Amino acid sequence: MYPEPARHTPAERAVTAYQPAPIPPSVVHPTPIVPVQSGHVPAVASIVLPDGRIVTGYAIDAVRPEPVAAKPAVSRTAVNVALGGVGFLAACGGLLLLTSFIAALTAFIGQLIILAAVVFGGWIALQVLGAGGHQGGTTVNIRKATFKRNHFHG
Known about the structure:
Blueprint lengths: L43 E5 L5 E5 L17 H54 L16 E3 L2 E3 L1
Antiparallel strand pairs: 1-2, 3-4
C-alpha cells in the first residue's frame, strides 16, 4: 500500500552548504565608549553593629540625584482649561443676557401694539358713535320723510 523508502548511502545525499554574507560597514555601529573610573581602590571600612557583629566593606560615596527643576504650583494645562472655562462662562452669560433682552423687547413691542389698538379703537368708537351734537351739515328727520316709487321725498 505504501511505497518502500529508498535506501541511500550517506555519500549519495545532497549536502547544501551556506556561506555567511559579510555585513556591510554602514550597518555596523561602533560600540559606545564607557568611561572607566580611575584605578583608585577605595579604602576598606569596618563597622561594629550594636549587637557585636562586625561588617567590613568598601566605603561608597552616596549617589546624589540630579536636581529637578522646580515645577510651578499649577500646571499650564490647568491654567488653560480654567481660562477656557471662564471664557465659555462669559460667552454663555452674554448669550443669556442677549436672550433675556430679546424676550423683554418682544414683550414691550407687544404691549405697545395692544396700547395702540386700544387707543385707535377708542378713537374709532368715538367717531362712529358720536360725542354729542352734530357739527354742521343738514339734519333730516327720517320719520317725516316719505318714499314714493323708490324715490326719497323729504
